[in-house]
Amino acid sequence: MKARLPRFDRTTVTVVVAALVLGAVYWAVVSLAQDFYDTTAPMYSIYNTKTNGMSVYFRYLGELDLKPKVLSNIDTLPKDATIIVAGPFEIQPTAEDRKRFAEWVRGGGRLVLAGGEAGVMLTDLDLGAAQASGLVDSRVAPSLPSAYARGVREVASGGDRLEPIAPAWATLFADHAGSVLVSAAAGKGEVLWLAGAYPVSNAGMGKGDNAKLAVLLAAASGDQVYFDEYHHGFTAEAGVWTRLGSGGQVAFVLGMFGLVALVLSRGRRLGPALPPRDEPLARSAAYIASLAELYRKAGARAEALEALEDGLARALARRYGTATAGLARQPAARDSIERSRALRRGDITRDEFLTAARRLRRARREVEGRG
User: Fold this and answer.
1) Are 62 and 147 part of one and the same domain?
2) Contact at 8 Å (CB) between 259 and 3?
3) Residues near 287 by Cβ (< 8 Å), separated by ≥ 6?
4) Residue 306 contacts residue 344 (beta carbons within 8 Å)
5) Contact, 370 vs 361, CB < 8 A?
6) 302 and 224 belong to one structural domain
7) 180 is in which domain, residue-wise?
8) Same structural domain, 85 and 204
9) How far is CA 133 from the centre of its chain?
10) What letter would DSSP give residue 92?
């Protein structure tokens, strides 16, 4: 018996292919959004690839195998880690956020702030500083020996400066205009504050020894380095969908509408299931053969041929689902039945009967794979 290949419904194949194409397009759009997203990403976000972004810093730490991560949920802050927070923010830190960060620092966390606006995170730590107005874009040398001055001779600071108020601050980099980098202990943790985010930005990473300083700020906690993107608007609930922007979201929604329209216009299997066709029970081959033999002995040749035709039709229905489908696939069976029916319209001679009966039986054996 020959193996039968599975039959595929054309509408189903069309819908599956359309879904695969739409999925591929969506994957491509998401990939492009992740690699080249720079039009609406906030200032100093790691997703911003322009000069005022921090994508270079994030990738640079990754190439050094420091495994930087994105902090998109602040319900639970990572232990024994460094969190880099750069301002300004898209989502202003709430009082609860500031309290959570303060408790985390006192418990042993390292908080690296970049930019004067990031100082709002210090409200509950009793640490404050005034941001001086933009002065000159200069290169600043270390003010004190520290772990953050190791191998760093000068930092291209930009024009931002700090004026520490709390006595807990230690000035690590400064010039006559003010402080560029300060540090303070808080409980078991530490806070470092860059007056401006320029030294760790895409535009500043390649200037002076900024790249070395950027690594020292992040590497103290090993591979536990997190960038606060939660306050830049990239929350855990938003994810890639938010990064697609309005254009990508509209394109995806239109694509989904197109897929639904295609299914509705081409699908034939929508709605309630059709009841199965009533098929009479198939008679066994032995029963049909004995019935035909009785008809033959009684001289009822037309009735005998009709019984043989019925047996062949049932064999076709069992193999192909319906007798009509079987007749379309088996020309020999169709020809045998047509000739037999033509004979039954008139008088049937003995030789005509035998010839027609042999054809019907031979066609049935071929359908059943027995000959």
Assistant:
1) yes
2) no
3) none
4) yes
5) no
6) no
7) 43-232
8) yes
9) 45
10) P
pLDDT tens, N- to C-terminus, the chain (371 residues)? 455 555 556 666 676 777 777 777 766 766 665 555 444 688 999 999 999 999 999 999 999 999 999 999 999 999 989 999 998 999 999 999 999 999 999 999 999 999 989 999 999 998 876 665 555 568 899 998 999 999 999 999 988 888 877 889 999 999 888 899 999 999 999 999 999 999 999 999 999 999 999 999 998 767 799 999 999 988 875 455 555 555 566 677 777 777 776 666 665 555 555 565 555 444 455 555 565 566 556 567 788 888 888 888 888 888 888 888 888 888 888 888 888 888 888 888 878 888 888 888 888 888 887 65
The owner of tokens 């008809």 is: 295
Q: Compute the distance between CA of residue 326 and CA of residue 320 in angstroms, rounded to an integer.
A: 5
CA proximity to 328, closest of 313, 339, 342, 341: 313
Residue 277 belongs to some domain of the structure: no
| Beta carbons of 348 and 301 less than 8 angstroms apart | yes
Q: Cα separation of 265 and 97, whole Å? A: 52
* DSSP assignment of 185-252: EETTEEEEEES-SGGGSTTTTTSTTHHHHHHHHHHTTTT-EEEE-GGGT--TTTHHHHHHHHHHHHHH
Which residue's entry shows tokens 């034939």? 268
Tokens of 83: 């969190």
Is residue 7 included in any domain, yes or no? no
Q: Which residue intervals of 222-330 are DSSP H helices?
A: 239-266, 285-297, 301-320, 323-329
The reply to whether 267 falls in a domain is: no
Residues 6+ apart with CB under 8 A from 57: 46, 200, 201, 202, 205, 214
Residue 306 lies inside a defined structural domain of this protein: yes
For the chain, the straight-line distance linking the first and the last C-alpha, in angstroms and rounded, comes to 9
Number of residues that make up the chain: 371
Do 67 and 184 have their domain in common?
yes
